[in-house]
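Standup, Tuesday
Yesterday: got the pipeline producing structure tokens again.
Today: sanity-check two examples.
Blockers: none.

Example 1:
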Amino acid sequence: MYVSERLAAMLGHQPGELLGRNPGVLFSDRTPMAQLDAVAEVVESGQQAVVRLGLRHSTGSEVPVEASFLALPSLSSGDPWYLALYRDAADVPRAEKVLADHGDLLDALARADDPHDVFIELTDRVEDAIRGASCWIGVVNAYGEVDAVSTSSQRDDLVASTVEMIVASGRAATPSTFRVDDLSFELGMELRAHGVHALWSFPVVGRDRRSQGLLIAAHSDRDFPHPSERQMLEHLSSLVAVALEHSSVVSDPAHQILHDDLTDLPNRALITDRLEQAIARLGRDNTRLAALLVDLDRFRQLNHRRGTDMGDEVLVEIGKRLRRSVRLGDTVGRLGGDQFLVLCVAMNGEADASSMAQRIIANVAEPIELSDGTTVSATASVGVTLVDRPGQTASVIINRAESALSAALDAGRGGWALYEEGLRQRVVIRHEVEQALQIAIDSDELLLHYQPLVEISTGRMLGAEALVRWNRPGHGLLPPGAFIEIAEETGLIVALGAWVLDEACRHLRNWPRAADGRLPVVSVNLAAKQLADENLVDTVIGSLTRHGVPAECLGFEVTESMAIDKVDTAIETLRRLGALGCKLSIDDFGIGYATLDYLRRFSMADTIKLDRSFVSGLGESREDTAIVSASLALARSLGLSVVAEGVETRAQYGTLADLGCDLAQGYLLSRPVPLDEAIELWTRTHLIILD
């Protein structure tokens, strides 16, 4: 199937004269058949056979060689392949000792799922045999583009640039030498900075005679290799070709084991191994390794909204974009789900890492065209950690990137964060809060406070908003801002919301009527995950029934800026709640991205609550006053009542009265208070009187 040019020349032939012939024609007539039978028996038992024998030269003379025979498994046909390597036994110079002891290389070749493992072993052997040399291997595709590099002693990007230079020079197909002084100024400067004086390049040629790459020895002080070194490098370049050939045959099962089925990127096992190798190579120059953990924002919602097939299309496209974002020599892998790990070698510091993170975020954000003709947009958050010395494990580096990613998510998604000391501790604390909150929901640590809603024209209390507090042991009374976001991200918000709902109904059962016979309307807040919960309406009905509370006394607040993934499902849920008699308010009105569209979609609402940012400027800002006035006019035309949030001064209250606003809520009237204080406020004739 394959005969190297070196072997054919040693026997006085062209390779084509030997291809397709029985290998027996290579052996000298004086080679004992018993010896060949013994070799066959050893090889067929799965072992390597190393023997001295004679090969037949085209002139009829005998060429003494040391031969190594090995069987390689073939997954395509089931029959094994046989590999034979021959070393001229007439000359055993120093460099040839590598070839005299290459049995374990053949064993590694037979076992290797990834030729990269064999290449690293080869480069180490060359560097041991040739003092002052570092060995590099570059693999190129049919277009002459560098697909991969292997080196145990140099930066991947520098090796890739060198391979590209040799390919561009047109001298990649033949053994060549390059003095660094004769190269381009930039590349020459960088190579000199790494102690390189000359490059000895040897082509890696496959069975189809196509150039598959280069084996390069970069020497510190000599222009040319000695003949024995040249022979060794030529021989090893042939072994590189065999390794690539072998990997193409065994690639199917190996690829399945080491690569992600969907994106064809290295999977967690392979990318972790590559990270370990990259860490081990640190310390040889002043550069750093950057690990970037890329997480697609809200991908689960996209998957639910568009379906898993479309979600898979997005993941495949994101994988391609990440590969296009990085430089030659960098690696992209998929850890699982919607998380990818990017390994960037030769980073000069935070500036390089920042540039790479921003490039990834920008590339991911470009619209994605799907097979059904529609487009979707995705954003990514990135956690970055820099590594500047060996001795650290891959798991530690990934954990640090996860900590940085958490910081990026906390900052609002669609951005990036760099790992720094203290981040990990904050992540640990966040995890502790999550666990403690789960316990709090099941125990007696949560309680409700109530903030009154006051009728502006009369100053009397009409109802209240229920706000959860957490009396966490050892931490005191915590406001919602300390734990609600964590509850939403972890999904605990559904259980927490169910507790708030039931506790509010339990309190309403014992809430006294006002002097005029009225009952209050107590409203609770709904999160996006609660609206997506198909059991929400049943949960509401259960709490109302269990505590004997009229549905008209219970209200729900939905934040306008809240990201609702299944809008149609949310609308149907709110309609069913309205049909029960429950009240609905649109909270933080005016600060979302589609205010009018929100009003149109949620036409079952009874009330809008003006965001405090508009109320704070009443009487002082002409713009805020105009916005509040316009919102009131819009609400009246739609038959909605209006609550002004964040009322803190009598001037604001008076302006709202002049504008005809219905209800007010804020510290001027009352802070959120415990149940007994809320009931005491409820029994008053009014909470404020206009001058």
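Example 2:
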Amino acid sequence: MTTYNLIAGTSEHEVDPISRIEGHLGVKVSVEGGLVKDANAHGNLWRGFENFVLGRKPNDPITYMQRICGVCPVPHGLTATFAADAVLGYSPGHTTFKGVITEKAMLIRNLVLGAEFLMSSITHFYHLAAPSYVQGPAIPPWTPYFNDACYSPLLLSAGNGVGGQGVVPNAAAPKLWDAIIISYVTALKMRRLTFEAGALFAGRMPMTSCFVAGGVTNDTSDLVAFAASCAKFKSLIRDVGLWIVKEYVPIAFALGLLYADYDNAGNTGISGDRLTPEDGKGYGAGLGRFLSWGCFPETDDTLFTRGGVSGPGITPFTAKNKAEVWSKWLNPASGFSVEGNLTEDIANSRYSKSAADIAANSYTGTEAYPGDVLRTKPNRGAGYSYIKAPLWDGKQCEVGPLARLKVAGIYAGNLAGLYGGIYALPGSAAYGLNPNALSATLVAGLIGTDTSAVIAGTNAAQLVAAWLLPEAALPPALQGIINPTGVVAGLSVMDRLRARALESLLLVQRMVGDVVVDPVTGALSWSDDWTDPLDGAHTLPCWIDQLAARGTQASWVAGSSVARKVGSHHGYGAVEAPRGALMHQSTIKDNKITAYQCIVPTTWNGAPKSAAGENGAIEKACIGVPFDNDAGEFLSKDGSTMVTSAGGIEVVRVAQTFDPCIACAVH
């Protein structure tokens, strides 16, 4: 466990800005006896995108709303497309399934969004979150560091750590630090490949030009070129996929072993004594209440990412196919309808009711259904954040990769079953993982790691090596000592990081086929089919092969948009962005937008307290975490000396695990 320089007594601290996120987030914490007892997360600045599109045509937000964020424009473009589908009469709303648009258009939408998912998850883990756990090379821009005590000794740079790492990684004789830094650099290439693949159908990435109500704009009349694009997409994403298998997933799992405080009690055996009683599961456990709209509609009318809600205080349900989406999300009589459950609360937000909303009686107290709100009115003197507080049935919810896998029932119990046998050691019941499923650099780094370090009585290198290597590959001193039984799903910082990595692996396999392991040799190869992780009997061709088989199909269909050019119409689109549940609500009159509202992932996760006093997801996750008053080292103004300042590294790590996008949240 980590040793903390804790603050005695009661005090308040501002951790602002939270580094390596999108936009500007701060968290004000109240500390008692060294533990965070309350937190106020605040997004700064208001941008006004919802008001920008008033008076414009229904398709215009597809272009405008992509500019909310330079990292996640694809989900905004697609959600705006779903909203346009709804108000123009192409679909009843939410997600547009086949039969409303062509299967070809639906698959192109899925593949472009899937490429965006992979890019975003890789970027978050390696380039935003990991530098809070792994010291970079001892050169700018990685320096200055947090204090060495904030890192695992195995992940220290510049000779400070176990075995003495160098200024730059040693690829010839790597240790664990070297292997991870090399993987960090490789992740930059993989990020580029996802953009290259997505642009084959999006026209360009990240700002796409292929989405339109009724389908996509792709001209696929040149079947030779279309087939070549499909083959190129498969090749690029399979390159990314093997790297996810060999480096991203195993490193994400290893991180939990090196930072046991941040893992759930089921994996570490660490009790919840150091946390508030209602948590006790590991730093950053949070609300334990999850919401997902669902996305990636299938050609058989199921949803790859299932929608629904789960957790304490709300009635759980899951919508996994077209019939359930339309009967639950869109049917007020079901008890689960969006109109009957979704509100946004501005009790602690820097907004007021507009004159139009007061006249229309849009709000009940400080809450309103977003589809009823006519205009967003900022009020700098109100609340403490420019983020609203979305609520489901009056409750705050967490959204994102962990929420998606929890709602779907995938992230539960022992996680070994999610691998689909990829990491199983072939022909043996012994512990350890298939070495073919790890990069050679990572394997060498683990075997070469100095195993003399002891962290709180547990040899961290021994744990990591025993998790990721078969016993025969371990140094003799470690053989026969550790017998891991599998990583258990729970609620913690590490669970969010693991869920994102596992989702990336599952999504790659849905896009371009399953990764399969030879039961004798352990070698990895590809199948063109995909097997549902919850139902092994449910197997379909991968999306890219399904698309290639529909080369002659139209990519756009004419709808009832002509009839919708007169009169008033309301609808909404909803999808899953990499960061979580995203919805756009649109109202038109005589073919012009009269109201538009966006409810984005970090609006959910970064929400301030509701009128009932319930914390948002990030706020709740910070509660119970120790506050280290001496965690950071920063350059002084003249750049010549180092000064030690209050750190709040624990708050930074917890907030970063949600991959906040404040640019989106203060739209």
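Quick observation on example 2: The CA atoms of residues 252 and 498 lie 6 Å apart. Confidence is low (pLDDT under 50) at residues 273-280, 451-462, 477-484, 631-646.
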